[in-house]
Write a structure and sequence with these properties.
The protein is mostly loops. The protein has two helices and two strands. It starts with a helix and ends in a 23-residue tail after the last helix. It is globular and about 40 Å long.
């Protein structure tokens, strides 16, 4: 399983099961390894990496850096 596949999760909205991608996949601060970023150079916390927790608000240890869309 790739790092990207690990970052994907599925949610059931009561009608359909939908795939949701973590914000990290679209963040300009993500490093090439997909596991670290400018905010978390030692490793992105799992809850953020898999999309269970948003990083659009401050998180302890994020060095004041939060999600910013990188564009595609």
């Amino acid at each position: 399983m790739t790092d990207k596949e690990r970052a994907e999760r599925f949610v059931n909205d009561g009608e359909d099961i939908k795939q949701v991608k973590a914000d990290c996949d679209f963040c300009k601060h993500l490093h090439e390894d997909g596991l670290t970023c400018d905010a978390f150079p030692e490793g992105i916390p799992d809850a953020i990496r898999v999309g269970w927790k948003s990083h659009r608000e401050p998180v302890d240890g994020d060095h004041g850096i939060r999600y910013e869309y990188r564009g595609v």
